[in-house]
Amino acid sequence: MQYLFQLTTEEFSKLLSDVVAEKLTQFLAIKIQQEENNTKELLKTKDVAAIFKVSERTIANWKKSGKLNDHLVGGSVFFKPSDVEKAMISREKPIRKTNTKLKRLI
User: Is the residue at 102 inside a domain?
Assistant: First the structure.
């Protein structure tokens, strides 16, 4: 068997560590950039509460009951604008005023 390079175990270990460290640093830089880009598009709980004109506690209850999907990014809770829009649509119900005179007749 012929070898292209002859490395000691220590040299190989150092070379491997350097390559892994470099690739890991590049990967983490890309991940951090992606998270920063993603959070720019997401809404915080207080923003969603303001949109619906409800308390942050109500948003937490909706989240817990499945009425509103949340996303964790770096330990913080965020909401996608599309999920908020879906919740708004599902929350809209036509208001029907009942005619009390008609009810009495029925």
Answer: no
